[in-house]
Specification:
CATH superfamily of the largest domain: 2-enoyl-CoA Hydratase, Chain A, domain 1
Strand order of the largest sheet: 12-11-10-13-14-15-16-17
Oligomer: single chain
Shape: globular
Strand content: 5-15%
Bound molecules: 3-hydroxybutanoyl-coenzyme A, 1,4-dihydronicotinamide adenine dinucleotide
Number of strands: 17
């Protein structure tokens, strides 16, 4: 029976089993059932001890996140109150934890007197990743159990820890290989027989007292987390809760934790981060690729082209334990590309994030060749040669001739038509795009670009591959720039127009950074290299409509050889060996001159003009992408932007953010921009329709 807690009696021990597939989520109904079972076990004179366990795959994945926006039913049991009852029990309570104990799930366990864990279990308090604090005593019991500093790491870090680590720092008491339930029941019975005092986390004062003597630990922690936590509310609220645990008695601390929990639960940031959680799970679901589709089992891979991307992609395979052969035109090209790979690994070893043995293992998985014959046994080949259609088609013809019949032929192209590449082969159903982001071994996004004829199996294979490579795969359709770069184009364009109209790169970048992106458009271009888009613009020049506004600033910057960080100058200048952008008067001169030539009178641009001007057109492009079916869902676009471009998770991605701003507001602003600046900024029909209906992109999915 789903959504229940089952109570079984085992000779004096009541076994309470949480049963609510898939993760035994603590819904309102589950909390009530748990409360009832606890009362029943406490009242039953034949019960001397209690064991709490989970049915199926895990102990418990925490509160039911889907109910966060719902009002609790009248008289609903509060989880902290149920757990207080459980902890206060005179009868010993043992948690038997397997699979996962996360969030409210771990909080249930923390209220038990003993925690036994099965090997392979993961435990933690991931609430912070949902924009909230643990709300059922996690921030009050954990520091009492394991000390303030360790608790801060667990609560603010939000990671699930392996069982061994959880035991070693004292979150759990013992690792139990073998029959966990039998061990837990035996332990409960033994504790009851011994009648020894029970260990209640809420009553442990020693660690708290120690922290009282060391109050600077909190400021030090805030300082340490500042970079990663920038813009997020929840990490700071978590620290505040732990501070409260030290400052206040347990019951008062619990009340304060609840208050903070409720405030954050109702916040936009939490809504955004919960949206991100579900978006990342939704993105794996492809309506016309049935779940039962059997993906190809990738045992060997090959990469064609050992440049910037090819090397990074090879590392990604090697890191995931998949042997990979890299093919390039010459030994010199291979030496160069694989030299970069070796240096990348060595740098990670030097930072202490990889052992020498691991590096050697990974390097040993990367083979090299100048012959296409060596890709014959690969299950997937990722092409990453220069961005030229004729060259890539030639590569695909050769792959078609060499590769085994069921191999997936993938391209890392960032702008070219996957269908045209597929047409160069006799097996278009096996051809697909796998658009990695630079640096490919670091960035988690993989835009998987389906061609018109890509088969369900080919799609399923690259979606599963993304998971194996520890990436986030988003399925998109063919169009210029796919999802991410297509939306980036209007953003970069408007940022440049703002320069002509009166802003400077440092102002625009500053505002966008404050909004929450890792850097603004100009710093980003300097990092990526300004030359790449310059070549693309040169190629497009012949077909560009002459009456369309065009800013020559970026071209002029490139004409001076200012390709960005790699040449020591771009939109900014960089001291030798430094990545810190320094505003450059030369750039300002170029901007002022370009404005004068275009007859634009520069004016003071308010900071508040910059976000709408740069980001509304980006959202507008997203609306077109959605309407054209290039992305399956608005939330898929959000996943692209969070993982490919660092769009702040606490804003949920551009489409979710747009819904929060209100599509009416965005539509009205786009209409004004359209009147002022013309066709480029015409509001997308979908934006217009949804705004008119008072709906958001989230509703469009429904
Ligand atoms: N509530 C509701 N649904 C949940 C859920 C939860 N807590 N956790 C997972 N799910 C759903 C997922 O959305 C997914 O649904 P779908 O199949 O319809 O897409 C399904 O359960 C399976 O989830 P995963 O694919 O993520 O399963 P895994 O086995 O890979 O991972 C997990 C399991 C580690 C538990 C992972 O699901 C997870 O991290 N869940 C969230 C854990 C969490 O954040 N808990 C804290 C909740 S807040 C809380 O507890 C407040 C408390 O302090 C009061
Ligand atoms: P690159 O210029 O660094 O490397 C290309 C490599 O391909 C060179 O080593 C070259 O010798 C090799 N090559 C050329 N012809 C070949 C052939 N016939 N057979 C085998 N190898 C051949 O290029 P980069 O930047 O790695 O880009 C590769 C692809 O990835 C392009 O399609 C590009 O659009 C795409 N891409 C690039 C990104 C970036 O940030 N650099 C991001 C995402 C995609």
């Amino acid at each position: 029976m789903p959504e229940s807690v089952v109570i079984d009696r085992h000779d004096g021990v009541a076994l309470l089993t949480l049963d609510n597939p898939p993760v035994n989520g603590l819904s309102f109904a589950m909390r009530a059932a748990l409360g009832d079972c606890v009362m029943e076990a406490l009242a039953d004179e034949d019960v001397a001890a209690i064991v709490v366990a989970g049915a199926g795959r895990m102990f418990c994945g925490g509160a039911d996140i889907r109910e966060f926006d719902a009002a609790p039913p009248p008289g609903a049991a509060s989880l902290p109150a149920v757990l207080d009852e459980l902890e206060a029990s005179r009868k010993p309570v043992v948690a038997a934890i397997h699979g996962v104990a996360a969030g409210g799930g771990l909080e249930v366990a923390l209220a038990c007197h003993v925690r036994l864990v099965a090997p392979g279990t993961r435990l933690g308090l991931p609430e912070v990743t949902l924009g909230i604090v643990p709300g059922a005593g996690g921030t009050q019991r954990l520091p009492r159990l394991i000390g303030v500093e360790a608790a801060l790491d667990v609560i603010v870090g939000g990671q699930l820890l392996p069982a061994e680590r959880a035991v070693s720092i004292g979150i759990a008491d013992e690792l139990v290989p073998g029959d966990l339930l039998a061990a837990a029941i035996a332990r409960a019975r033994q504790l009851a027989a011994d009648g020894a005092p029970l260990r209640r986390a809420s009553a442990l004062e020693e660690r708290i007292a120690a922290a009282r003597d060391n109050p600077e630990v909190f400021d030090a922690f805030r300082k340490k987390m500042a970079r990663r936590a920038r813009g997020f509310d929840a990490p700071y609220a978590c620290v505040q809760c732990v501070e409260t645990a030290v400052a206040l008695p347990f019951a008062a601390g619990m009340a304060r934790e609840r208050q903070i929990f409720e405030r954050l639960r109702a916040s936009d940031q939490s809504a955004a981060q919960r949206h991100a959680f579900f978006a990342e799970r939704e993105v794996t679901k492809i309506p016309d690729v049935p779940k039962a589709t059997e993906p190809l089992n990738i045992q060997r891979a090959a990469v064609i082209g050992c440049g910037t991307m090819g090397g990074g992609i090879a590392m990604t395979f090697a890191n995931a334990g998949i042997p990979v052969t890299v093919v390039d035109v010459s030994d010199e090209a291979l030496d160069k590309g694989l030299g970069v790979v070796a240096r990348n690994y060595a740098a990670t070893v030097a930072k202490g994030r990889l052992s020498r043995e691991q590096m050697d293992e990974r390097l040993a998985r990367i083979g090299r060749s100048v012959s296409y014959a060596d890709v014959r046994d690969a299950d997937i080949v990722v092409e990453a040669v220069f961005e030229r259609m004729d060259l890539k088609q030639e590569v695909f013809r050769r792959l078609d001739a060499e590769c085994k019949a069921d191999a997936v032929l993938a391209t890392n192209t960032s702008t070219l038509d996957v269908d045209e590449l597929a047409a160069a082969t006799s097996r278009p159903e096996s051809v697909i795009g796998t658009h990695f982001f630079s640096p490919a071994n670091v960035m988690r996004l993989m835009e998987n670009v389906r061609g018109k004829r890509s088969s369900a199996r080919t799609i399923a294979t690259v979606m599963q591959l993304a998971k194996r490579l520890r990436k986030v795969g988003v399925l998109v359709g063919v169009c210029d720039g796919f999802v991410g770069n297509r939306m980036l184009a209007p953003y970069l364009r408007e940022a440049e127009f703002l320069l002509e109209e009166g802003a400077l790169p440092q102002q625009v970048d500053g505002v966008i950074y404050t909004f929450g992106l890792p850097m603004g458009p100009f710093q980003m271009s300097d990092l990526a290299g300004n030359d790449v888009s310059w070549y693309i613009r040169q190629r497009q020049a012949a077909t560009r409509p002459p009456d369309l506004r065009y800013s020559p600033i970026a071209d002029r910057i490139c004409e001076l050889g200012r390709f960005g960080q790699k040449t020591g100058a771009g939109w900014y200048r960089y001291e030798p060996g430094s990545r810190t952008p320094v505003p450059d008067p030369v750039v300002e001169e170029i901007i002022v001159a370009a404005a004068a030539e275009a007859g634009i009178e520069r004016r003071a641009i308010g900071d508040d003009e910059i976000v709408p001007r740069c980001l509304y057109p980006l959202v507008n492009e997203g609306a077109k992408i959605l309407e054209e079916g290039i992305a399956l869902r608005a939330s898929d676009i959000d996943v692209v932007w969070m993982h490919g471009y660092g769009f702040p998770r606490y804003r949920g991605g551009p489409m979710f953010w747009a819904d929060l701003v209100g599509l009416r507001t965005i539509y009205d602003a786009m209409s004004r921009l359209y009147d002022e600046h013309g066709e480029r900024l015409a509001p997308a029909p979908l934006l217009k329709r949804l705004a008119g209906q008072g709906k958001g992109f989230g509703d469009a999915a429904a």
